[in-house]
Amino acid sequence: MNTESPIIRPTGLDIARIRADFPILSLPSNGKRLTFLDTAASAQKPRQVIDAESHVYEAEYANIHRGVYDLSQRATVAYDKARTKVRKFINAASDREIVFVRNATEGVNLVAQTWGRRNLRQGDQIILSEMEHHANIVPWQMLREETGLELVVIPITDSGELVWEAYEKAFTSKTRLVAMTQVSNALGTITPMAEIIKVAHSHGVPVLVDGCQAVPHMPVDVQALDADFYVFSSHKLYGPTGVGVLYTKAKILEAMPPYQGGGDMISSVTWAKTTYADIPQRFEAGTPNIAGTIALGAAIDYIESFDRQALMAHEHALLEYATERLQALNSITIYGTAAEKAAVISFAIKGVHPHDVGTILDFEGIAVRAGHHCAQPVMDRFGVPATTRASFGIYNDFDDVDALIRGIGKVQEIFG
């Protein structure tokens, strides 16, 4: 095994200071320094986010939009400010275009069950890619069972890139929607989303973007992209679980029927008739995750306190360093080698199941994901049941990569 370390590329960020913001990273795992390399599944939380959520419960918690008393008014203001922060963060045109949901998965389901049911019929087509997460597959399959629509799947190359010619040729008079990821969670591939949307719009077809892996790692401007729908989750953006965002152009959202019925999504209710609230409240039935949503705003504040370009450069340097070190090892196959790629590496060690790799690395304090990553069609494409995935965040450093390489060396020693 080649253990020679490539030259480390300094990125100018004080990663030690950033790591100090994340309390969990100071705690050991199996008696070792915690090397957390599963940010693509869910990111760790900085103290600023933890404190923001705690503050709500300790000092200003009450139900929102319903109380005339001080606590309720303060909670409502803080909650509504979070919506404005999200709007600015992704450069939406209006707060009215930001719908809070439980996660990106619910955002996709909301579109499928409201816009989809109203606009899609038997024989209509939705274009997906071979690299989609299950959250951007299963809702459309469920709708297919109900309506008889067709799913058109665009293949990917051996490097994990979209086969562009197949995409351009996929449009027919029956194409009604394109639903694609901006960054693959399993391969790290960054898709040419602006061009994807431009082609779709030239055919009069709207586009839903799964931005879960994009928003934490790169600036996103939904107006510049001209996305019609855009979903992402708080928990991948260093925020709490249980909160997600669905951005939808106002003119589209206004034409969509409600997703769920209940309190806060109504204008008036009688036994004879219910009239619905304006957007976005129309899609936010019941008491929301108030504290979590406010803490999402704190997560956005935290990310925006850094130079986003510097963060991107740091993560890219980690990706390059980890790729070089893995490629120098024997019997390692990396899946996903696109020219444009986020800080995600899926790999396999010859003769070792990924679950065994993950278990041995865990004993070394290294947290990676082993499995199909909620992207079984991607695994099928490459003919493997699973991979080991290392994914990086703003708190990772080159020591984490070195720990991963040492851990893989131990795996190879055990399995000969």
Write the layout of secondary structure elements.
Elements: H1 15-20, E1 28-29, E2 32-33, E3 35-36, H2 47-60, H3 70-90, E4 98-101, H4 104-119, E5 125-129, H5 138-147, E6 150-154, H6 164-169, E7 175-181, H7 193-202, E8 207-210, H8 222-225, E9 229-233, E10 244-248, H9 250-254, E11 266-269, E12 274-276, H10 290-304, H11 308-327, E13 332-335, E14 344-349, H12 354-363, E15 366-367, E16 369-371, H13 376-382, E17 387-391, H14 398-414
Parallel strand pairs: 3-15, 5-6, 5-7, 7-8, 8-9
Antiparallel strand pairs: 1-2, 4-10, 9-10, 11-12, 13-14, 14-17, 16-17
Helix pairs in contact: 2-10, 3-10, 4-5, 11-14, 12-14
What attributes characterize this protein structure?
seven-stranded mixed sheet, Aspartate Aminotransferase, domain 2, 2 domains, single chain, alpha/beta, 17 strands, four-stranded antiparallel sheet, 16% strand, Aspartate Aminotransferase, domain 1, 416 residues
Morphology call: globular
Helix and strand composition category: alpha/beta
* N-to-C span: 12 Å
Q: Number of helical runs?
A: 14
Q: What is the CATH topology of the largest domain?
A: Aspartate Aminotransferase, domain 2
Q: How can the largest sheet be summarized?
A: 7 strands, mixed
Overall tally of structural domains: 2
Assembly type of the shown chains?
single chain
Please give a structural write-up.
The chain is α/β, with parallel strands linked by helices and 416 residues long. It folds into 2 domains: 15-33 and 307-414, Aspartate Aminotransferase, domain 1, CATH 3.90.1150; 50-304, Type I PLP-dependent aspartate aminotransferase-like (Major domain) (Aspartate Aminotransferase, domain 2), CATH 3.40.640. Helix content is 39%, strand content 16%. The chain contains 14 helices and 17 strands. The protein has helices spanning 15-20, 47-60, 70-90, 104-119, 138-147, 164-169, 193-202, 222-225, 250-254, 290-304, 308-327, 354-363, 376-382, 398-414; strands at 28-29, 32-33, 35-36, 98-101, 125-129, 150-154, 175-181, 207-210, 229-233, 244-248, 266-269, 274-276, 332-335, 344-349, 366-367, 369-371, 387-391. The strands form 5 sheets. Strands 4-10-9-8-7-5-6 form a 7-stranded mixed sheet, with helices on both faces. A 4-stranded antiparallel sheet has the order 13-14-17-16, with helices on one face. α2 (47-60) runs antiparallel to α10 and α4 (104-119) runs parallel beside α5 (138-147). The longest helix has 21 residues, at 70-90. It is globular and about 75 Å long. The N and C termini lie close together (12 Å). 44% of the residues are buried.
